[in-house]
Amino acid sequence: MSFELTSNEVSRVEIAEFLGIRLDPIGHVDLSTIVILSTMYAIEFVALCYQLYHRNYPPLKVKNVPIMFSLYFGAVIWMLGDIFTSGLVHLAGSPVLRACRFTLIWCRISLGAYYVTSLFALRTYALYHVFYLGKAFTGRVVYLCFGTTIGSIFLFGIISTLVPGHMTVYYEDIMDMCYANHNYITAVLVVIWVVWGLIAWMTWTMRYVSFCFSEHVEILSSFSILFTIIILNTVCLLVITVYPASLVWRTILLYINHVGASVGYWVVMWVPTYNCMFHREEYLRYWVDTLKEVDMERQYEYSSLNREETTVLIEGMAPIDVYSTVETQISDLESFEQSRTRTSTTLESQSKVYETTKSA
């Protein structure tokens, strides 16, 4: 896969010019974009493995690490779809890359942008379900919501694949690009905008809900970032004529999509991850004390987490069960009080006997 200005690439530029399209050749800027974004996701993968390993740490667990972890893989697939269909690489040399139904319908749309949008909507609904409706987001509700989300994604992809290519996406060998039918792209954007409308509605209804740990900031920040992403994609796909032909537009789109998605992710996960790594015990105690102070243990599922699973891990020592320790201390205190009472009673009795004997 060449990023040099070869004779074939010069011919492609000339053909595009003949067709009235200004085509910027594939070059080292495209290569640097691929390398930078791939490196970013590779570094994030290490941090995500750490999060998954420590997923039972309460401040991390309430962020729903499995859903956030799956968001990462959706973003990676989305990046691959963007690279293959945004004019950053040559498609002619690979039958897989020329299969635009795979790269565009599945990688970029279904398992990429639609998947990330749907999972973000699912996480927003989980917060809405717990904090606005006041119901636990566990058990059957989780499976039903997650199953509906994944089912809709695959249903969308399967239907798009079965529809004839001229109505959805196809490979144009003259330009060596994947093209999408305008009506199909409009339909895709309408679906994604409907999902974003639901997210906006849930976010708005939760504006007066009380949170403990800046979830309002997380929701609004992530929403704003990803909202910007979908606006830019809408402009590129519906307004800009053949945006993959423009080096500026395809580079901006890739960076906005994936740096933005990454920032949106870390707005949610940075604080608990950082504190789990460097201030594990101190932050956990602060977290627990804050929940108890505002009486929101139920909303954050703190009681079940701590009574059944959570232990405070002290470096170099065996795990200590917080509740067992507290209960033991209370029991010891009660025993001490009983012993002190018995001792006091005995001393009083002995004192009376002594006084009686002395008087006699």
From TrEMBL:
Keyword list, A-Z: Membrane, Transmembrane, Transmembrane helix
Membrane-spanning ranges: 31-53, 65-92, 112-134, 141-163, 183-204, 225-246, 252-271
Highest taxon above the source species: Eukaryota
Keyword Membrane: yes
Name used for this protein in its record: Uncharacterized protein
Organism the protein comes from: Coemansia erecta
Classification of source organism: Eukaryota, Fungi, Fungi incertae sedis, Zoopagomycota, Kickxellomycotina
